[in-house]
Please model this.
Amino acid sequence: MTSSRDSDRAAKAPATRTALVVDDEPAIVELVRDALDGAGYSVDTALDGLAALRSARKRSPDIVILDVGLPGLDGFEVCRQLRKESNAPILFLTARGSEVDRVVGLELGADDYILKPFSPRELIARVRAVSRRAGSAPPEAAARRAVGEIEIDAQKREVTVGGRPVRLKPREFDVLWLLTCNEGRVFTRDQLIETVWGFDFDGDPRTVDVHVRRIRRAIADDARAPRYLHTIHGLGYKLAAPPPG
Model:
């Protein structure tokens, strides 16, 4: 039998984007589903980690909203596995708000971290913000840039170091592109957030440090003796070519 809520959903214009909502609390799932449905998303749901992976692999959602404390595979493991297969934004929605949990989530590739209890209006604002960032191209997208052995093709969103392909996630690419286009200029964390994430970013500012660490790991740059990506203590970060010789 079709419910009035299902009839209302069917009467709306077809959604153009898809979301996967993963939480073991059915009431939370329904609340998030209704909010996303009202924002024009087609929503799939899962109540545990294994079901989440099956759904994501089948449907390739445009965004994943994920609890940490899930039966079976927890949200961190789901995020880790999804990041091997997809660049879709992942937004943690969880009651686990310790600094360690937030940093772990960001290190694993999450794009944002929202604590329960939450406002559906704020959730949709965050979803739209991370979706815009994921779909946006960096400035001068048709250009190529090189700093030392680092070469970036922004149109193809490809990076090589000494001819070796380097795999970066979307925001990591955008940070490296910005620094490459401004070789030698120091960017504060706030400037990087405003330029790459946008003025509406309301996540954890430590995400900048997390992304820098991942970029360094990808380009094989040692933070203790960097060749390219330098920490300017008390200020921020800059990219510079190593001296010749």
Observations:
- The chain is about 40% helix and 20% strand.
- The radius of gyration is 19 Å.
- The chain has two domains: 4-135, 144-239.
- The mean pLDDT is 85.
